[in-house]
Amino acid sequence: MSHHQSTSESKSDWPTATLRERISVGLCLTPFQRKLLQKKLQSDLPQQYRQRIEIMLLADEGKSQVQICKALGCCAATVRHWILMARMGQAHNWNDHPIGRPKAVNDHYLARLRELVSRGPKEFGYAFERWTAGWLSKHLAKELGIQITPQHVNRLLKQMGLSTKGKPVQQNKSSNLNNPSNRIAIRDLDALEVSDLKSADWLL
User: Fold this and answer.
1) What pLDDT was estimated at residue 135?
2) Which one of 40, 55, 101, 137 is most buried, counting C-beta atoms within 10 A?
């Protein structure tokens, strides 16, 4: 009897708790997700997992990225990643990724970045002519789930000897044919004797 009575009393509290949650409408999470994360936060979790949950709960309360970084003492990349996960409805995946920083740039990311720059944005359905670091960052975040800042994208491009301004540079190559240095090289060929030209292996 007493056990049944205590159970019924605890159940009677559920609608009140649910109503209390609904009064404060979240920005990123559903009431179910918020309740689940709050429950997980009460269990014994590694600090990194707790941090992920706290990031999403604070973002749901309307806290900014800067405020969350200061409150939890974590890097901006981590905060940005888990806010994005919450907004995408992936809050339940808080323990799916290995502990540590969000997915790091790998060889596949670099190869795909090189391919995007070489092909141009119009081939991927965009209306603009030239990539920017910001759009490359957004596209690869959607495609590969690896989110880095536009500044980091620019650093990677520089390391690979690439640039978002690569195509205009290629167009300028045609103007190099009119450079005085090139004309001098052509005149130098005229100065060679015919016998030397015939014997030159690089002309065969």
Assistant:
1) 92
2) 55
